[in-house]
Amino acid sequence: MKQYGYFDDDVREFVITDPATPWPWINYLGCEDFFSLVSNTAGGYCFCKDAKFRRILRYRYNGVPMDSGGRYYYIKDGDSVWNPGWKPCKTPLDRYECRHGMGYTRIIGEKDGLRCEVLFFVPKGGRCEVHRVRLTNTGAAVKRVQLWSFVEWCLWNASTDMENFQRNLSTGEVEVGDRILYHKTEYRERRDHYAFFGANRPFDGFDTDRESFLGPYNGFDTPQQVFAGTSGNSVAHGWSPVASHRFDLTLEAGKSEELIFVLGYVENPPEAKFSAPGIINKAPAEELLEAFGTPAKADAAFAALKGYWDGLLCRFQLESAVPELDRTVNIWNQYQCMVTFFMSRSASYFESGIGRGMGFRDSNQDLAGIVHLIPDRARQRILDIAATQFPDGGCYHQYQPLTKRGNHDIGGGFGDDPLWLIFGTVAYIKETGDFSILEEKVPFDNQPGTEKTLLEHLKISFARVADNLGPHGLPLIGRADWNDCLNLNCFSDNPDESFQTTENKTEGSRAESLMIAGLFVAEGKDFAELLSQPAVSADPAYVDEVREAVSRMETAVKQHGWDGEWFLRAYDYYGRKIGSSENAESKIFIESQGWCGMARIGADEGLCGKALDAASKYLECEYGLVLNAPAFSSYIKDYGEISSYPQGYKENGGIFCHNNPWVIIAEAMAGRADDAWRHYCKISPAFAKDQSLRKVEPYVFCQMVAGAEAAHPGEGKNSWLTGTAAWTWKTVSEFILGIKPQYDGLLVEPCIPQHIGSYRVRRRFREAEYDLTIRLTGKGGSFRIPYRPGFQALEIEL
Ligand code: GLC
Ligand code: GLC
Predict the structure, then answer these.
(1) Counting ligands in written order, which one lies closest to the CA of residue 409?
(2) Which residues are catalytic?
(3) CA of 714 to the centre of ligand 2 (A)
């Protein structure tokens, strides 16, 4: 089996040893408002705050070859031209290594006695990428070599940059300093921002016009200036502005030269935009270059970044007998949760950064992965999300991070959305004990003057679902529930309509969702528990109302949602069953088994156990649990997008990893440790054996892995930005390892196979630090640790 890399856990890195990975294996840089995507061959782009509106580097989607464009360093050593990251020249290297770490990527290429090491990171407190380039002559003779940098600018709006050429090809503007190349397109008019690419010493040549650098008919792999050993010293006027520096270097034997590049973003106040008519105010760019432009300063910034990640990850550290589990828990799952929280579903190698903003349901779920790491940011996110709610409890399905305004193109009407606000808020308060968030005043649809407390928002969220029930007393689905592709009011036969926003038939719709029913019961119970906390002082009559609504829903599910062996998935527009043994295809779906199982509906009568058995029996394959089976073999207008996918992919029979944890948690709640563990290992990348088959990054969870009915089962897609990150974190930390945050402390209640023996968890919780050694003796049960600030070491036998 071909391997492309390995985990180096001691330094928290994944090391790629072959650049020709089956798909670009990327990393993310940045943890404040400047973010970068960087692949193992230095491809990718960066943006400030918003991947659509403040795109700094241009990136080619559907590029051939794939992953074209990035921050490229070219080296000319005699006749040979190469890149440390192998691409774009693809000159064979004597050695290549890419180390993706926590917020940084280090790429090392070596050829003919010359080593080039590039460290990429986004420093804390700086809106820039720092590229630390070290060239070392490992041979015995002096070397004269040349180094070129290269980036291509995006004209800010990543969407119009790809479309509006009649304008774009005339607007490009740059300025050239002796160390810094500036990109100032549209700065003359309404923009208050520009980008720059600077080096910490004066260059020997430069280019800012793409064709002058590459040659009009050349690709990134054959830049004419590099092959000629020159620079065009070109100043771009329109067309495609780029930035390239050239350095002519002499390297003594055994000696190194180090250059530091800063690729940054500057915003100037309106009165300080210009230093002279038409000349941009460069002072902030010079300061940013200055701030990181010496080896000592770059070292300090890099150390600060490492310190930041050490400080975060030490909040939950595991020592167990299973290295795959340790590396997932201690490093990569927490890291992916952070990235997912920052990006939502906007910018990855599967999401263009153009189409989607922050999802209401997605962002709420993402909180579960980071409340223990960055609680203050979770708090702000909850308030931002709540402000995109409508007064009737509905909400925008997405909002734009730059403006924090709801996205009108998509609107609302997704039946599950409001309940996720309860989910996110409960996760936050259980972790932090910060009940004061409930008293924060939050507007509706961001309209000043409409403010109500967050607690009121939660009440209307709950009511929104409680008051919108269908004929069986189950929640109406609207445009879709969690499954964006189950579009029961869509009825589209026009390929130009969006499945998510089209509702061709709504009048008299009876379409109901068992997934929302389970979510309502689970979140309703959580909500009642929250309301019952002494700090909340809710009206007891209201708490009773919530409990009664939950109990009516449980009855409705038992009466109308049980198929005999598992929970139904939905009722369609006409009131016909979906996900029933009566259906010809897709007789069983995962979401309702997961959610009704987590809500423990009918647990006493054995319904949950049976539903989980059915999930294993009908949905499980080698790589995880598929979403539905058998998959739909043709398009069914009554069901919408779900049946548009080929069998085994995405929401039609794919292993949609996001929902596997629901079943795993339900298994754990039912005390079925072996089943929970088996399902968990199947979707966890650290346990996957075949890197070629999996295709995408072996260090992060995928949204989807092709299912048993697919042409290529086991092939991963949509890596990185997925609710899978937060849900697998919740699953492993709270339900498998069993460390559950409660309002008044921690509850230790593991559900992990006996053979794992014992494990140690060091957990920071609010102002407390726990060192827990948990021994599995087989007796089971749970152990309560009341919250008390300070350090405690405990040995617990369960
Ligand atoms: C995508 C969406 C998410 C949705 C899921 C299932 O991951 O981001 O909101 O729940 O697909 O359709
Ligand atoms: C597609 C995808 C789904 C995603 C949705 C977002 O339908 O299948 O996963 O949530 O698009 O609009």
Answers:
(1) 2
(2) 484
(3) 20
pLDDT tens column, 278-316: 999 999 999 999 999 999 999 999 999 999 999 999 999
Q: Which atom of ligand 2 is nearest to the CA of 645?
A: 8
Neighbours of 472 (CB within 10 A): 18
User: How far does CA 340 lie from the centroid of its chain?
Assistant: 2
State yes or no: cis peptide before 391, omega within 30 of 0: no
Determine whether 79 is exposed, middle or buried from the number of CB atoms within 10 Å of its CB (0-12, 13-18, 19+): exposed
614 alpha carbon – ligand 2 mean position (Å): 26
How far, in Å, is the centroid of ligand 2 from the Cα of 485?
Answer: 7
Residue bearing the CA closest to ligand 2, atom 6: 484
How far apart are the C-alpha atoms of 407 and 178, rounded to whole Å?
Answer: 43
Asked if residue 50 has its Cβ within 6 Å of ligand 1, the reply is: no
Q: Is the CB of 483 under 6 A from ligand 1?
A: yes
Positions in the chain short of pLDDT 70: none
- Nearest residue to 59 via CA among 191, 179, 176, 162: 162
* Structure tokens that stand for 627 in this block: 């979403």
The reported pLDDT for the residue numbered 402 is: 80
**For residues 195 and 46, is the Cβ–Cβ distance under 8 A?**
no
Encoding tokens for residue 171? Answer: 């607007």
Largest CA distance in the chain: 86
Name all contacts of 304-309 with Cβ < 8 Å and 24+ positions apart.
304/123, 304/124, 305/102, 305/103, 305/104, 305/121, 305/122, 305/123, 305/124, 306/102, 308/31, 308/103, 308/124, 309/12, 309/102, 309/103
Determine the atom of ligand 1 nearest the C-alpha atom of 485: 12
DSSP string, 193-239: EEEEEEESS--SEEEEEHHHHH-TT--TTS-HHHHHT----B--BSS
